[in-house]
Amino acid sequence: MTDGPTTALMRKAYARWAPIYDLVYDRLTEPAARAAVNAAVACGPKVLEAGVGTGLSLGYYPSHAEVYGVDLSKDMLRRAQDKVEKRGLTHVKSLQVGDVTRLDFPDETFDAVTAQFIITLVPEPETALSECARVLKPGGEIVLANHFGQPSGPIAAMEAMASPVVKAIGWSSAFKASRIEEWARRTGRMEVVELKPLFPGGFFKLMRIRKRA
Ligand SMILES: C[S@@+](CC[C@H](N)C(=O)[O-])C[C@H]1O[C@@H](n2cnc3c(N)ncnc32)[C@H](O)[C@@H]1O
Question: Which of 103, 142, 201, 212 is the most buried (most CB within 10 A)?
Answer without folding.
Answer: 142
